[in-house]
Amino acid sequence: MFEVILAIIILTALGLVFGLILAFASAVMAVPVDEKVEALRSALPGANCGACGYSGCDGYAEAMARGEAQPGLCTPGGQDVAEITASILGVESAGVQEKKAQVKCGGCDQYINTKLEYRGIATCAAANQFYGGEPSCSYGCLGYGDCAAACEYGAITVENGLAIINKDLCVGCTKCVSVCPKSIIEMVPGSAKGIVRCSSHDKGAVVRKACSVGCIGCMKCTKVCEYDAIHVSNFLAKIDPEKCVGCGACADSCPTGCINIFGYQPKNQKAAV
Question: Any idea what the Cα angle at residue 85 is, between residues 41 and 97, rounded to 5°?
């Protein structure tokens, strides 16, 4: 009986000693917690998308606390998060420049030609490894929906082999941009009036053989634009969102209908894709 009691006493004493050692070590080796960082981190949505330009919400919160980043860079959080983080920092909120993802390709199944039949793993990443996938256009959407799978907000669907983004559901997190193996998803200002739905830098003759709605670099759009809002570089037209007023003249002049002015019905019906 004595041996049992002695064992209990020894174990209890050892427990107390080790507990004191751990408590002391915890106090000595404790990492100071910045309450401002914690408050900023809790205000962020936790998407860890990198749209702010930092590694994630933790990185952005730390950068704001150090004064290296301004509130308002979190597009998924929007204006509400911008105002909360600005209040924590004691500064005035400059607002959020809303950005939306857009697919720079209009080549759905009815317009694009194919160069092979792919029967492998049904992901864009895998298909792209096999001679660039099925489309004859090396810049075209592969249509397997890696972007849709990455989107946590249900903003992307694949219709007729082409990724379609719902602007109303897109929060600008950029996750779709990072997973697209063709790099054809671009972030544009939410106020943008339109976009050229093509990413090809091939010459016009090559584009025509691959896709009937691709940009052929004809420059007709640049000639009719009164606002100097669209230019052609390396055989591809690009709209300047700062200058574009959404008049639709460029879309009407486009022979392939690859210019999409949001909410505008062009004379060339293909442009409505």
Answer: 110
Residue written as tokens 């949505």?
45
Q: What integer is the mean pLDDT of 175-182? A: 95
Check: CB of residue 164 under 8 Å from CB of residue 148.
no
Q: Where are the alpha helices (DSSP H) in 34-92?
A: 35-43, 57-65, 78-89
Contact indicator for 199, 139 with CB cutoff of 8 Å = yes
Ramachandran sector of residue 140 (left: φ over 0; alpha: ψ -120 to 50; beta: rest): beta
Please state, as a whole number, how many other Cβ atoms lie within 10 Å of the Cβ of residue 263.
9
Whole-number Å distance between alpha carbons of 106 and 114 = 15
- Checking if the pLDDT of 213 tops 60, the result is yes
Q: Give pTM, 2 decimals.
A: 0.76
42 φ, ψ to 5°? -70, -25
Mean pLDDT (the chain) is 89
- Report how many domains make up the chain: 4
Residue 142 shares a structural domain with residue 104: yes
- Looking at 44, 71, 89, the residue that finishes a domain is 89
Q: Which of 152, 156, 101, 155 lies closest to 124, judged by CA?
A: 156
In SS3 terms, 88-118 reads as: HHCCCCCCCCCEEEEECCCCCCCCECECCCC
Residue 129, domain extent: 99-186
Rounded (10°) angle between helices 78-89 and 57-65: 40
